[in-house]
Amino acid sequence: MKKSPFKIQENVQRLSEVCLKNSKIDNVHYSEYDVKKGLRDLDGRGVLAGLTNISMIQSQKMIDGKLTACEGVLQYRGIDIKELVAGFQKGQYFGFEEITYLLLFGELPTKVQLKEFRQLLADKRTLPKNYVRDVIMKSPSKDIMNQLSRSVLTLASYDPNVSDLSIENVLNQSLLLISVFPLLAVYSYQAYAHSKLRKSLYIHNPDPKLSTAENILRLLRPDKKFTEIEAQILDLALVLHMEHGGGNNSTFTNHVVTSSGTDTYATVAASLSSLKGSKHGGANIKVTEMMRDIKENVEDICDEQQLSEYLAKILRKEAFDKKGLIYGMGHAVYSISDPRADLFRTFVGKLADDKGLHDEFEFYAKIERLAPKVIASERNIYKGVSANVDFYSGFVYHMLGLPDELYTPIFAIARIVGWSAHRIEELINMNKIIRPAYESVLGDRNYVEIEER
Ligand SMILES: CC(=O)SCCNC(=O)CCNC(=O)[C@H](O)C(C)(C)COP(=O)(O)OP(=O)(O)OC[C@H]1O[C@@H](n2cnc3c(N)ncnc32)[C@H](O)[C@@H]1OP(=O)(O)O
Ligand SMILES: O=C([O-])CC(=O)C(=O)O
């Protein structure tokens, strides 16, 4: 029988030990050369790598001449995210399209501009002929993030201007990708559910009159039906995930890759690959899995002592995925609070009550309260830990009946807007390849001829 190339052979196992031995760098060198691990200062602040007009994240304030931790603030194009959300909720319309306009063009649209822009996105929400049959239906997989990358890279081969880096062309490509991401993600899920879960296959067309959030639900549901409140909550989730500065891992990837002069499709595929990581956008599905695991393994989930002990086991790599992380907790910038988690929490509570899932909400709230204390007792925390945007997002998607496989792709459907705005900002302003330094700490070695090794 033919051997699977994915099986780890014994010699690969042995060679991996050689990798481990020869690739290890003594920790002392990092302080000796003042290397900013993770491009972070010793106090955890990111190394300044660029300037942006797109968003602002604040987690510290100057009080009496001293930088002091404060409640997290997030502004899109200078406007507080809380005000933006209150604005479209008061106006009773969907926010994703309006905020896409704001993030890409730097100003809020008038009613006429918004109407035209919605139409532009609807016109672009279409895939090349036979694309679903020839690309999406081929080798379906549970990993919809990889399927998204593949679909984006294949779209490049249909674009006659793939490598044109003019702002007009890059904007056009970005708008196309923003429009079709819901189709690529949901159709990829449908293909997977049909071929691997033996479900019926539904490939509904989007409705040009509907918003992005409404279309996602329409494409997903066999009967294309959804309620107003379901679409509003999904829309809010999209808005909260759209943008988070130039330094988050997937957007920084976007800057790095853009700076090499590559095309929009390759850049977006790179950002998708970053986002799926479980310390970044992939955390939302990990939170759901972790919560299930806690319920299965803690005898009495109302007992806070038992919960804290289990959380400590997770941190000690003795439980759950043995990675030592409590997902949905902590952030590279925020300390006291992530404003997106705060916004989410208020709506999640109401939705949970409506869906009869109040106990589940209480369970989340309890973990949210206990985890920071357990993390602080097991790790060196200098700036505080709180729930991040992804702590509640999986629970929300679960209440909306979205399949687990689409949790991180929903993040991508939103974040492609931020990536696009940053790619355009990089192209307009930088024109310099990103190329930091790595100091070699090995020293010289003599070449030894093969007979003498
Ligand atoms: C959309 C987003 O990307 S939001 C983030 C989503 N990711 C998660 O929810 C995964 C869980 N959280 C984490 O892994 C981290 O909090 C990160 C990756 C988000 C940020 O990590 P850092 O920037 O290193 O955070 P910070 O500097 O505050 O961490 C201090 C220490 O606490 C640890 N820590 C922070 N959060 C957690 C956590 N949730 N679980 C376990 N340990 C944690 C860090 O690993 C670090 O330990 P070390 O000193 O041994 O290196
Ligand atoms: O800013 C970060 O490092 C991660 C984050 O919250 C995001 O990308 O939304």
TrEMBL record:
Gene3D superfamilies: Citrate Synthase, domain 1 (1.10.580.10), Cytochrome P450-Terp, domain 2 (1.10.230.10). Belongs to the citrate synthase family. The active site is at 331, 390. This is Citrate synthase. It comes from the Bacteria. One of its GO terms (cellular component) is cytosol. Keywords: Transferase. GO terms for molecular function: citrate synthase activity. Pathway: Carbohydrate metabolism; tricarboxylic acid cycle. Pfam families: Citrate_synt. The keyword Metal-binding does not apply. The lineage of its organism: Bacteria, Bacillati, Bacillota, Bacilli, Lactobacillales. GO terms for biological process: carbohydrate metabolic process; tricarboxylic acid cycle. It catalyses: oxaloacetate + acetyl-CoA + H2O = citrate + CoA + H(+). It comes from Pilibacter termitis. InterPro entries: Citrate_synth-like_lrg_a-sub, Citrate_synth-like_sm_a-sub, Citrate_synthase, Citrate_synthase_bac-typ, Citrate_synthase_sf.
